[in-house]
Amino acid sequence: MGRLNLLLLVAVMVSGIYMVRSAYESRRLFTELDRAQTEGRRLEADYQKLMADRQAQATNLRVEQVARERLKMRPISPAITFNPDAPAIEASGVRGVRAPQGAAR
């Protein structure tokens, strides 16, 4: 009877230790899951903000403004035309550039 009691005591102790360890692991995984979900929500909010910024930057008015300010482009007018017989294109600062052969005049 003493051996059986000792064996049962060891089984109860092992079972208790396993249960405590399992509960601890469950709490740790739940905390990790909660952190991952919070990070996912933060990343989703950042993504939505970036998409809104992208839409704002891609408007026609914004593109036109960047073309004027950064690229120094200007609207086309009849006064600004390409003359293939001209010796150089002065407006762009490139000298000696001619139209390709067979280009429309």
Description:
By secondary structure, the chain is an all-alpha fold. The protein has a domain at 2-69. The protein has two helices and no strands. The protein has helices spanning 2-57, 60-69. The longest helix is centred in the first third of the chain and has 56 residues, at 2-57. The chain is rod-shaped and about 115 Å long. The N and C termini lie far apart (113 Å). The model has no long low-confidence stretch (mean pLDDT 83). Its main location: membrane. One of its GO terms (cellular component) is plasma membrane. Keywords: Cell cycle, Cell division, Cell inner membrane, Cell membrane, Membrane, Transmembrane, Transmembrane helix. It is a single-pass type II membrane protein. This is Cell division protein FtsL.
Major beta sheet summary: none
Q: Mean pLDDT across all residues, rounded?
A: 83
Helix residue percentage? 55-70%
The number of helical segments is 2
The percent range for strand residues is under 5%
Give the distance, in angstroms, between the N- and C-terminal Cα atoms.
Answer: 113 Å
Shape: rod-shaped
Structural class: mainly alpha
Q: Calculate Rg over CA atoms.
A: 37 Å
Helix-strand string? HH
